[in-house]
């Protein structure tokens, strides 16, 4: 710090940056050294964010319906400038007309580690090279099949070890080091705390004890400064978010409505959904935040109650997130035509918007709603229990976690219905309604023996979805082909664990369980497993199915009818494309869910994207070689 400080207690300033320009020797010694460098694989060559390896190969559409794109160019927060006297110019330069990407540090301080989320690469790299530990929190799940990539879940804490690349950073989770997409994380504001603690890990822990782990944080003034930093970040990012929403409404929607020959009302509804309602809501929410924001003493701001007052208002994000995958698909279709591509670019330039595609702008609401719990979690960490805003922040954090959790689950469920649709169209002789009419997730699958009565059994491949259990039979010649053989509704059914032994109607059974109607106690079916371990897995799976249905009802998890139908249509189009490649004169492509000609059956396989799909083999059935012709040709008669 400067040498001429007043003896009076200095008020915390609302600066997201270093305030101690000349740190003490003790602080320099306390910096966390970087781990020793190890041999690193090359930067992944695929795009950012990386699509899931299996899904990308199996889907007919190259664009993932649920994986967010453009995160690396969205939400770059302007950094408040730090003056040489330790004061700040505050947020005067950060209004609605200022781009998030225009800001940067005027000077890099070596003091207490305060960083603005998604700081520019040069500043972040210098910060890391100076010996400071930089931690980031995951916004999204990163599921990867590659060894050179780092897998993590939303909320995990990643230590950033190198940030020289724009799209890919080198980091560590625990002992594992690998590349990860920079767009999937949010850099923490306060970097001096242990990076191993996620937001959830500090919940229920006394804040006083948490902060006292670091000797430097025992100063109450510094604690207040930490809270001021987080409050300032929330306010700044909220203002910039409002600008993005305004640009979308005025720069894109208004111009699109002026060209009815290019866009129908249905198209605009698909692409932009209810983003105008979100813009209206967020403007009101920002006004509430401004009223509770204390510019003179940011650490005293009581913004937690603002989130609680608007708790129901955030529900409008559910509709937007539901329709966002359809918007991405429609945009991708339009962008294949040059006039639409040029039109959207002209709209961006006319509105003087930053260099982000329209798809990136339309992603900002999804990203924002997932950032709230991370910001509130960090705010809770630096809010003492005796603070007037403590209860409000606690409740707000929990509420926003539920909202973000619902969105993440819906994204995952969209991936699931896509895989289920591809699975269903490969089933032969399908009857009745589609699986997706009731279900959206596969819970478990495996081989079972259905006991019809004493002495009569049926070998079945069973697939347990939410709300229903589907039975299939393996093809006699091709064991990797499945024929539909019926289903059982799980709503109103209960599971019974049958003891081994003889039963009056079913005879002797082993490793068996039964399904019966919960009200009438009518026996629906008896299922036997090969091993006792398999039986336990099925019993647990049936319990999970009922729990999943209950959770979906409580969370309001809903997949729209349009999304279900779209998934089936995409899967059928994909199958038609494959059948065209193998059509021959006199052998027309069969209709869906009809028995296939043997020639066509050789080219039909069940997608491997269904989890736990270990009930069939994709290999050709092995046949013993025939020695009959060989015997004839070796005989004396043929040798003559």
Contiguous runs where pLDDT drops below 50 for at least 5 residues: 1-31, 49-113, 199-218, 581-626, 636-640
Terminal-residue CA separation = 107 Å
CATH class category label of the largest domain: Mainly Alpha
Strand adjacency order, main sheet: 9-8-7-6-14-13-10
Biggest sheet overview? 7 strands, antiparallel
* Average predicted local confidence, pLDDT: 73
- CA-based gyration radius: 30 Å
Can you tell me about this structure?
The protein has helices at 25-29, 53-58, 121-129, 207-211, 220-257, 265-272, 275-292, 304-309, 316-335, 338-350, 358-381, 390-425, 532-555, 561-580, 598-601, 628-634, 636-639; strands spanning 134-138, 157-162, 168-173, 176-181, 185-187, 442-453, 456-465, 468-474, 482-489, 493-497, 501-503, 507-509, 512-517, 523-528. By secondary structure, the chain is of the alpha+beta class. It folds into 2 domains: 25-415, Up-down Bundle (Dbl Homology Domain, Chain A); 435-564, Pleckstrin-homology domain (PH domain)/Phosphotyrosine-binding domain (PTB) (PH-domain like). A 7-stranded antiparallel β-sheet has the order 9-8-7-6-14-13-10. Strands 4-3-2-1-5 form a 5-stranded antiparallel β-sheet, with helices on one face. α5 (220-257) runs antiparallel to α11 (358-381) and α11 crosses α12 (390-425). The chain is globular. Residues 1-31, 49-113, 199-218, 581-626 and 636-640 have low confidence and may be disordered. Residues 1-51, 196-225 are annotated as: Disordered. It is found in: Cytoplasm. GO terms for molecular function: guanyl-nucleotide exchange factor activity. Residues 34-44 have a biased composition (Pro residues).
